[in-house]
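Narrative of accomplishments. A recurring question from our advisory board has been how the design workflow behaves on a single, concrete structure rather than in aggregate. To address it, we present the structure tokens for one chain from the evaluation set, followed by the sequence designed for it. No filtering or post-editing was applied between the two.
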């Protein structure tokens, strides 16, 4: 089993930055992809960024050039650096680890004021 805990969300003005963290506990040996998703009110959950075991990254078009996903394997933590935040980035952000099965964190709220 893998448990995920996100942190780092909060309220920020447009143009500001936040760094989200997702700390894992348990056996992450089988995890092949780590990702960040977000869900805004009334909208479907969407992929924001992902990183594979080999280090390949993928980003939603809406965040390319503004967000960066990274990881610290020793700390079993994945990060999402978010710069130039805009009100449309307001959402609950979730991390997801995928291997033989998917594991989700509880989410962290990000609110960007205009």
């Amino acid at each position: 089993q893998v448990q995920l805990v996100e942190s780092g969300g909060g309220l920020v003005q447009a143009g500001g930055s936040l760094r989200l963290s997702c700390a894992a506990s348990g056996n992450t040996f089988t995890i092949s992809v780590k990702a960040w998703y977000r869900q805004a009110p009334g909208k479907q959950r969407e992929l924001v960024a992902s990183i594979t075991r080999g280090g390949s990254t993928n980003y939603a078009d809406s965040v390319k050039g503004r967000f960066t996903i990274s990881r610290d394997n020793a700390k079993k933590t994945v990060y999402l650096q978010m710069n130039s935040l805009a009100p449309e980035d307001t959402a609950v952000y979730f991390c997801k680890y995928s291997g033989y099965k998917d594991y989700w964190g509880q989410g962290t709220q990000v609110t960007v004021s205009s």
